[in-house]
């Protein structure tokens, strides 16, 4: 975990957060079940859909 810090500048981290926030909004529009599943998958890093 600590080895990742030098490779990830703050700007990239902010971009990452914006990216995930946009995904969060998109999953919110899908529906109650899909919303919960999407957030669960995101928080656990599984079942990613392209």
UniProtKB/TrEMBL annotation:
Family matches, as Pfam families: COX7a (PF02238)
Key words, A-Z: Membrane, Mitochondrion, Mitochondrion inner membrane
Localization per Swiss-Prot or TrEMBL: Mitochondrion inner membrane
InterPro entries according to UniProt: COX7a
GO cellular component, one term: mitochondrial inner membrane
Highest taxon listed in the record's lineage: Eukaryota
Protein name: Uncharacterized protein
Taxonomic source organism: Populus trichocarpa (Western balsam poplar)
């Amino acid at each position: 975990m600590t080895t990742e810090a030098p490779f990830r500048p703050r700007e990239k981290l902010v971009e990452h957060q914006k990216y995930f926030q946009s995904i969060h909004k998109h999953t919110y529009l899908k529906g109650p079940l899909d919303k919960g599943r999407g957030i669960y998958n995101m928080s656990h890093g599984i079942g990613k859909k392209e």
